[in-house]
Automatic annotation (TrEMBL):
Residues 2-227 form the ABC transporter domain. This is ATP-binding cassette domain-containing protein. It comes from Nonomuraea terrae. GO terms for molecular function: ATP binding; ATP hydrolysis activity. InterPro entries: AAA+_ATPase, ABC_transporter-like_ATP-bd, ABC_transporter-like_CS, P-loop_NTPase. Belongs to the ABC transporter superfamily. PANTHER family: ABC TRANSPORTER, ATP-BINDING PROTEIN. Keywords: ATP-binding, Nucleotide-binding, Transport. Signal peptide: none annotated. It comes from the Bacteria.
Amino acid sequence: MIEVRELTKRYGSTLALDRLSFQARPGRVTGFLGPNGAGKSTTLRVIVGLHHATSGVALVNGRRYADISRPLHAVGALLDTGAVHPGRTAFDQLACLARSHRIGSARITTLLEQVGLRDVAHKRVGGFSLGMRQRLGIAAALLGDPGVVLLDEPVNGLDAEGIRWVRDLMRTLASQGRTVLLSSHVMSEMALIADHVLIIGRGRLIAETSMEGLARRFRRDVLVRSPRRHELGRILRAAGASVAFEPQGALAVTGADPATIGDLAAGHHIPIHELTPRGATLEDIYLDMTGQAADHRAGGGGSR
Ligand SMILES: Nc1ncnc2c1ncn2[C@@H]1O[C@H](COP(=O)(O)OP(=O)(O)OP(=O)(O)O)[C@@H](O)[C@H]1O
């Protein structure tokens, strides 16, 4: 469990986090989404004690990171894939981390296999692609078998197969009861990976919802095609829905969901040829939400 309460972080005159509060619960994959500069990395860094908050707290299983006695076993984090020693092999990179926590080489071998780096375990990291470094970073995060996993932009540099691999791995970790928090600035990546999403903009929480809920909330209308559209239109209006006729003879219905429309039509023996819920794409929703946050800030004047 991760709990962030009223977290504020200033870097000089930059307000990176502005009384940010949220929880990431065990057993699910939580996406931490926001445009570049929204404050995602700063939040993750504060959670693992790399940066100090100006005010507020970040707790892992009810404790501040500094108060956790064997942190690698409690929290695993991938924060910066560039932070590797290029002259070291993948195995040595993990061995250096493992030593301080008395983790044996068998665990390293298992993890390198799990992340698909077994064949390059003894190659220097300097020659690794970004995707390979991401895999190594994920292995490092999992070294201590932690209950909480934080990954900053873990699919950055991965191809479609790599993204699927991260998704499957994260789902497995969550199904084992772990807390998984992944950041990304790309909605389409999150839509594939996360069950639940926290959207931040300018250091503030804009929305917290399930992926499904997000899509549902922004569903616009239902497109209905029927050879008896006028009759159906009257019935739907009588039931309280709003109905507009579209150019090609379809009905655009708001105020009734597909099940209600289908049931009403069936009750009157009216055939239905199409019933399609329409909404903004997740990408549109996200850009809209984060854009509004930016506008609000720009127009708000002096809220910093
Ligand atoms: N060490 C630092 N010194 C000064 N300003 C910083 C520092 N780290 C982050 N910032 C600023 O804080 C704000 C939040 O940055 P942060 O890196 O947390 O955002 P992010 O959502 O992770 O974006 P990105 O995906 O681009 O890393 C930005 O305005 C950034 O310029």
